[in-house]
Amino acid sequence: MKKKNNISIKMNMLLCLLFTIFLGSCKKEESVNYADIMTEGEMNAELTAPPMVPKPVGNRTAMKLKLNMEIKEQEGTMTDGVKYTYWTFGGSVPGSFIRTRVGDEVEFHLKNHPDNKLPHNIDLHAVTGPGGGATSSLVAPGHEKVFSFKVINPGLYVYHCATAPVGMHIANGMYGLILVEPEGGLPPVDKEYYVMQGDFYTQGEYGAKGLQPFDMNKAVKETPDYVVFNGKVGSLTNGNELTAKVGETVRLFVGNGGPNLVSSFHVIGEIFDHVHVEGGNVINKNVQTTLIPAGGAAIVDFKVETPGTFILVDHSIFRAFNKGALGMLKVEGKENKNIYSGTIQEGIYLPEGGTIQKMPESTAVKTATPKRTAEERIKIGKEIFGTTCFACHQAEGQGIPNTFPPLAKSDYLNADSKRAIKTILHGLTGEVSVNGKKYNNVMPAQNLSDDEIANVLTYIYNSWGNNKTEVTPEMVKALR
Ligand SMILES: [Cu+2]
């Protein structure tokens, strides 16, 4: 009996040895109970608005963190000319980023501004306890609630309001992220940013002007008018781009507030070196697109090795190009021809005879064109350019050699504004000569309103050394 046992112990040791050699350690994964970690000292939690994040926890011990968050119901801009009443944690959508380390004890002060109309609360997915804190935090306007919790699971977690109707509070922007760093912190990187997707439901269609009320029917049907990063169209474009330098490592804390859609998060022209899948401990490597559930998050990082503009999208791609889920990361530095050569050769290939494709006509009832100043046209036109034209003509209107002609200092453009209007209305094909270079390609007709064409052309004519023509909707209408 004893002998047998001995043999089986020896067998076990041998197996373990083999395991260690071939598969790594035989030790069971250490399960630290973070609930037992004692806190040392006290500090005020740093909170940041997107796309910034507070500084890393580094090597600090677990502490008592005092956290002050104010709920504000406030009007903001969804996209140019479109206003929306956002309900916010800390004055931004998504709400303030909270950064903790495992074992921290958070003393949460939730304040509901006296000018607000409704009660709110907070459910933090990082909390172990009833409602994630929601049951202890319901707070009326002009009041403050205090509750505390210990963070015992490292990871990236969503927080959101959970006051009825829950969907409506989330749809109005009441969500954000709380990071619980592991002991010793996450590995250091050069740049860290906070990006969170959300879907919005307005009574008017995408782009319909004015203050747009929330539309409960569309929310129930899950047919959003806007799908955006950081609460609005263009939060990460047009001068608000994320930035990095060639050779740097970039970490994105990406969340999805929903309320409804699941995000297929992708960065065009990059591969994620690491993804903390669902914000947890599993690290996947070399990932193109990562799925972020509503009420979920992921931590992605990658090294930027070539300069350029990298586009953040929800790869459910109509959301990116038609509903706003598009951001940019601008990387500056020296080209690396080993990694990316640029175009080596370019020819024209038009198997279908190069007929001009038309974008489907919108069925929306066109509203009366508003009066605008040239400055307003330039501002709105810039947004239109950034979503419609830049993909071909490039961010600074510089075009792509042999394929897409430049709009910057374009002699073709500056010679004839009627011809430019017709190009956008009806498309353009056949050989054209721009600044002495020949192009023979196809520009599809763009499905834009008279006002939009006037705005985008006024923007282009007033940028990059062009001749400052102002184009009006009347001029466009006459040529339609
Ligand atoms: Cu709320």
Distance between the termini: 97 Å
Helix content: 10-25%
Outline the biggest β-sheet: 6 strands, mixed
Shape: globular
| E-strand count | 24
Give the ligands present. copper (II) ion
- Class per helix and strand makeup: alpha+beta
Describe the overall structure:
- With 480 residues, this protein is α+β, with helices and mostly antiparallel strands.
- It is 20% helix and 31% strand.
- The strands form five sheets. Strands 1, 3, 4, 6, 8 and 12 form a six-stranded mixed β-sheet that branches. The protein has a six-stranded mixed β-sheet with strand order 13-11-15-20-17-18. It has a five-stranded mixed β-sheet with strand order 2-5-10-9-7.
- α9 crosses α10.
- The longest helix has 22 residues.
- The radius of gyration is 27 Å and the shape is globular.
- Copper (II) ion (CU) binds next to loops.
List the helices and strands and how they pair.
Layout: H1 2-23, E1 42-44, E2 47-48, E3 64-79, E4 82-89, E5 97-101, E6 105-112, E7 123-124, H2 134-137, E8 143-150, E9 155-160, H3 166-171, E10 175-181, E11 191-200, E12 210-211, H4 216-221, E13 226-229, E14 242-245, E15 249-258, E16 263-268, E17 272-276, E18 283-287, E19 289-292, E20 296-303, E21 308-314, H5 318-322, E22 326-332, H6 374-393, H7 411-415, H8 417-426, E23 428-434, E24 437-443, H9 450-461, H10 473-479
Parallel strand pairs: 1-3, 3-6, 4-12, 5-10, 11-15, 14-22
Antiparallel strand pairs: 2-5, 3-4, 6-8, 7-9, 9-10, 11-13, 15-20, 16-19, 16-21, 17-18, 17-20, 21-22, 23-24
Bound molecules: copper (II) ion.
